[in-house]
Amino acid sequence: MSNRMIWNQTAHFGAGAIAEIPGELASRGFAKAFVVSDKVLVDTGVTGRVTRLLDDMGFPFEVYSDVTPNPPIEAVLRGLAAFEASGADVLIGIGGGSPQDTCKAIGIISTNPEFADVRSLEGVAATKNPSVPIIAVPTTAGTASETTINYVITDVERQRKFVCVDPHAIPVVAVVDSEMMSSAPRSLKVATGLDALTHAIEGYTTKGAWELSDLFHLKAIATIAESLLGAANGDPVATERMALAQYIAGMGYSNVGLGLVHGMAHPLGAFYNAPHGVANGILLAPVMAFNADATGERFRDIAVALRVEGAADLSIADARMAAVAAVSAFTRDLGNPTTLREIGAKEEDLPALAQAAFDDVCTGGNPREVTVEQILALYWSVY
Ligand SMILES: NC(=O)c1ccc[n+]([C@@H]2O[C@H](COP(=O)([O-])OP(=O)(O)OC[C@H]3O[C@@H](n4cnc5c(N)ncnc54)[C@H](O)[C@@H]3O)[C@@H](O)[C@H]2O)c1
Ligand SMILES: [Fe+2]
């Protein structure tokens, strides 16, 4: 039995860290950049903070911003065609998970054209070549896509979101600059922060968890618990802590997997275009309660990381309940929705959602084995 860890070659952190991008481009010998972002970020000038640096150094680039949340296959294909026409030799992803994941798919297909249908990248794809080099600049404190080997694409036609797992997709450089995240509206900060908390909790309890990934996940849980509210309310120090915490969670979960919360959140994105973090926030505490008996001492550790008073001395049954209650209170206090109705879910879809969640790549990592019927009951419990 061996364990594998894969991280970026280089990562820069801190307010103002985007100033390192010109140096990275120059020292790596790149000649032209293809920037993958989205329209909101271009219109609000967030993307421009980076492209201005490229202008200042006289570095040629093109911008592709035709990416929408829960990014569809079509956004990948249009971006791929534009990238190949551009003659660029480096990709710069600027955005939340949606532009980052689109950027990864473009980079992977460009060097592995046999996967040009996109759908065949689902799961662990047998690509032979590393992606076109990617410099990833997150604008949300959530997905950690800048340091993960995963990307998630939506098949609109078949109403499916699919997860691709490929070490070849990891960005070579991550630039985690909290100032790139500060313009996000409160609800987005809450949702993406709950995505990060879900990564940390699912990563800590997933089947593949081990000593090294545990370090990252516990640190991430504690830091998110103490800084998400402040970050949501615009405090710059807390925003910087969240930027780091979500990355730390990514260093862990990318290497060990997730669980049923993500398995159940993905179909909600595919069916209703629900924001990924909102869906996770609704499901996290109920799925934790479902998993509790299959987690050994781990929920006690989570309760301690969440600063539940006396958690170290509780019986294990009480410690597990305390961890679930703490997460439930945390998500409620942040104002995340708590029911599927609030994100437009329809009763008649629940059986199809349950089957899709059962089939999702992430569900295999869940600490407790689960049936389609149990997933359906869980969806009902939060409907
Ligand atoms: N690759 C991975 O490892 C991984 C992990 C988790 C989730 N994901 C995927 O990532 C996607 C979700 O990404 P996300 O939650 O970061 O959101 P997102 O990228 O979908 O963006 C959501 C909205 O927020 C806006 N936005 C982003 N940053 C902003 C900022 N700084 N200021 C103002 N507006 C801003 C965007 O323009 C967009 O309209 C989902 O598809 C999810 O499945 C990927
Ligand atoms: Fe996620």
Describe the structure.
By secondary structure, the chain is α/β, with parallel strands linked by helices. The chain has two domains: 10-180, Rossmann fold (3-Layer(aba) Sandwich), CATH 3.40.50.1970; 186-381, Dehydroquinate synthase-like, alpha domain (Up-down Bundle), CATH 1.20.1090.10. The protein is 50% helix and 11% strand. It contains 14 helices and nine strands. The chain has helices at residues 21-27, 39-43, 46-56, 73-86, 97-111, 186-205, 211-232, 236-256, 260-272, 276-291, 298-305, 316-334, 350-359, 372-381; strands spanning 10-13, 33-36, 61-64, 90-95, 123-124, 134-138, 150-155, 160-165, 173-176. The chain has a six-stranded parallel β-sheet with strand order 1-9-6-4-2-3, with helices on both faces. Strands 5-8-7 form a three-stranded mixed β-sheet. A hairpin with a 4-residue loop joins β7 (150-155) and β8 (160-165). α6 (186-205) runs parallel beside α10 (276-291) and α10 runs antiparallel to α12. The longest helix is centred in the middle third of the chain and has 22 residues, at 211-232. It is globular and about 60 Å long. The termini are far apart. The structure holds nicotinamide-adenine-dinucleotide and fe (ii) ion. Nicotinamide-adenine-dinucleotide is lined by residues 38, 40-41, 44, 46, 69-70, 95-99, 101, 139-140, 142-143, 145, 148, 150-152, 181, 183-184, 188, 192, 195, 269, 276-277. Its EC number is 1.1.1.77. It is an enzyme of class 1 (oxidoreductase). This is Lactaldehyde reductase. InterPro entries: ADH_Fe/GldA, ADH_Fe_C, ADH_Fe_CS, Alcohol_dehydrogenase_Fe, Lactal_redase. Keywords: Oxidoreductase.
